Amino acid sequence: MGISEKDHAYEVAKKMIIDGESWDKIMEETKLRLKDLKRIQKEEITPHF
């Protein structure tokens, strides 16, 4: 996975987390690990609320 693909996957995952999608659906679409998704949620989303 190239850098730009990974950045895109993170952006898609961030949007899906905000939209309230399930972890399973996000992991299937973005190919990211649950660990990565939880880090995105903790570092990028939770501070905004």
Automatic annotation (TrEMBL):
Protein name: Uncharacterized protein
Organism: Clostridium fungisolvens
